[in-house]
Design brief:
Elements (H helix, E strand, L loop, with lengths): L1 H25 L10 H19 L1 H4 L7 H30 L6 H33 L4
Helix pairs in contact: 1-2, 1-4, 1-5, 2-4, 4-5
Length: about 140
């Protein structure tokens, strides 16, 4: 099981990296002559928050009550999922295709890879939570 968790973790790590790159591109953080360290920190924090929400998927969706806080949390998770898909798409496009998509197959491949990478973060949530439940004796 640890091998699967390690492989999925690599996908989640790549997801976080491409999300960071996508945030940098969306907000044009490195576009000017002067690099502002606070803007880089902003991109790091946003990327970590997005990845954190995705890795917490299992916990967030396991809440049984639908109080206001839970609904806000689930809404924020959905926003993070959409942002992650978009920014990971930007990052994968740059790092995999060098920003040069020439054929419909390139576009389709990029969408599939981006979805798989995003799903790896969601799956990591499930694997980590299953390990915790097994440790507590809830799963046999």
């Amino acid at each position: 099981m640890w091998i699967i968790a390690a492989i999925i973790s690599l996908g989640a790590l790549w997801d976080g990296f491409t999300t960071f790159y996508g945030i940098v591109q969306v907000f044009n953080i490195l576009g000017g002559d002067h690099v502002n360290p606070a803007q880089i920190m902003f991109a790091v924090v946003v990327s970590v928050v997005i990845l954190g929400f995705l890795i917490a998927t299992h916990v967030i969706w396991s809440f049984e009550t639908d109080d206001v806080v839970t609904l806000i949390l689930k809404g924020a998770w959905l926003v993070c999922l959409v942002l992650d898909c978009y920014t990971a798409y930007i990052g994968n496009k740059f790092f995999v295709f060098n920003d040069n998509l020439e054929t419909p197959a390139h576009h389709l491949g990029l969408v599939i890879v981006t979805l798989l990478i995003t799903i790896s973060s969601l799956l990591l949530s499930r694997i980590v939570m299953a390990r915790e439940l097994r440790r507590r004796g809830y799963l046999y």
